[in-house]
């Protein structure tokens, strides 16, 4: 993750602006402007870490927004602390040494990013571990928080998952609404094959084995098996194994930690899981601040 990129900088800047971090009334009223502080970020539960690079970068962006020369800061971490590592309850994530007002003004924004991203990484790792030993790979979806997609999808990678399409330009995926407006599966696939950009594979969502056969008979190059039972997915995998050409198979819909192993054991290539990013539980972290 390039935390210095314009795209990421804009996300962090918007978060600080939303919180009016440079107009922190309480810290201005209570804290000596020359006071320095040491702030320790703590994991309050076991989790997979994601977003450690945001800490120093948020302080940098705050300085840009503040428009004043701020005192020197340090962010120190243990060499074994990095994105993707498993943290244990009570473990120190990082220590910030900086102007006390700045630390307090940035505290919530820093924790919001770390807690959300680590929450996504943690649930992703649980799904990845649940399918361990199979050939199936866990994918995310576009069901991300508005404006935070690049952040959310990076957190999925920290958890060991893989990214599906980053955005609508990133591939052809024909779904039910496309089929309805195109006049059916056949014209939708034909038009996609003719109009696609470069070598983008044409993937089609199907809900029955009959639709699967129809898609493959008309040139579909990848298939999303939507809301099928593991038994039906297994039949689809077996059917495609007899074809002369390789057809990547993905399944989605109703996938949970309780049933993901059953789907993976069918031999399906990918399982996409919306809940990784559409409703992750933020992990519990805190910031303990003392005078420095």
Task: Report on the architecture of this protein.
This protein has 292 residues and is an alpha/beta fold. It has two domains: 128 residues, Quinolinate phosphoribosyl transferase, N-terminal domain (Aldehyde Oxidoreductase, domain 3, Alpha-Beta Complex); 151 residues, Alpha-Beta Barrel (TIM Barrel). 41% of the residues lie in helices and 18% in strands. It has eleven helices and twelve strands. The strands form three sheets. A six-stranded parallel beta sheet has the order 6-11-10-9-8-7. Strands 3-5-1-12 form a four-stranded antiparallel beta sheet, with helices on one face. Helix 4 packs across helix 5 and helix 6 packs across helix 7. It is elongated, with a radius of gyration of 23 Å.
Low-confidence stretches: none
Q: How much is the average pLDDT?
A: 96
What's the helix-strand series?
Answer: HHEEHEEEHEHEHHEHEHEHEHE
Number of strands: 12
- Gross morphology is elongated
- Say what the CATH topology of the largest domain is: TIM Barrel
CATH superfamily of the largest domain: Aldolase class I
Rg value: 23 Å
Number of domains: 2
Q: Number of helix segments?
A: 11
Assembly annotation: single chain
Q: Strand sequence of the main sheet, in spatial order?
A: 6-11-10-9-8-7
- Judged by helices, strands and strand pairing, the structural class is alpha/beta
What top-tier CATH class of the largest domain fits best?
Answer: Alpha Beta
Strand content: 15-25%
Which architecture of the largest domain per CATH?
Alpha-Beta Barrel
User: Helicity, in percent?
Assistant: 40-55%
Largest sheet: 6 strands, parallel
What distance lies between the first and last C-alpha atoms, to the nearest angstrom?
A: 31 Å
């Amino acid at each position: 993750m390039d935390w210095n990129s314009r795209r990421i900088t804009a996300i962090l800047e918007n978060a600080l602006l939303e919180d009016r971090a440079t107009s922190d009334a309480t810290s201005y009223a209570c804290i000596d402007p020359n006071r320095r502080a040491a702030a320790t970020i703590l994991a309050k539960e076991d989790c997979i870490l994601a977003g450690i690079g945001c800490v120093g970068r948020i302080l940098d962006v705050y300085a840009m927004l503040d428009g004043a020369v701020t005192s020197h800061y340090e962010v120190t971490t243990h060499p074994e602390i990095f994105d993707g590592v498993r943290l244990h309850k009570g473990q120190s994530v990082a220590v910030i040494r900086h102007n006390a007002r700045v630390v307090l003004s940035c505290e919530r924004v820093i924790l919001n990013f770390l807690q959300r991203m680590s929450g996504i990484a943690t649930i992703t790792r649980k799904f990845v571990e649940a399918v361990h030993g199979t050939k199936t790979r866990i994918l995310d979806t576009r069901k991300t928080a508005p404006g935070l997609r690049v952040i959310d999808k990076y957190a999925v990678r920290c958890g060991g998952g893989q990214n599906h399409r980053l955005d609508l330009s990133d591939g052809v995926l024909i779904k039910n609404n496309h089929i309805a407006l195109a006049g059916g599966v056949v014209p939708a696939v034909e038009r996609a094959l003719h109009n696609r950009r470069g070598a983008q594979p044409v993937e089609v969502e199907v809900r029955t084995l009959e639709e699967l056969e129809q898609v493959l008979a008309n040139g579909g190059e990848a298939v999303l098996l939507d809301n099928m039972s593991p038994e039906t997915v297994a039949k689809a995998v077996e059917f495609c194994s007899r074809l002369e050409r390789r057809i990547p198979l993905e399944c989605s819909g109703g996938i949970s930690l309780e049933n993901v192993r059953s789907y993976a054991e069918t031999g399906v290539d990918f399982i996409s899981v919306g809940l990784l990013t559409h409703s992750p539980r933020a992990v519990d972290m805190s910031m303990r601040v003392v005078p420095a």
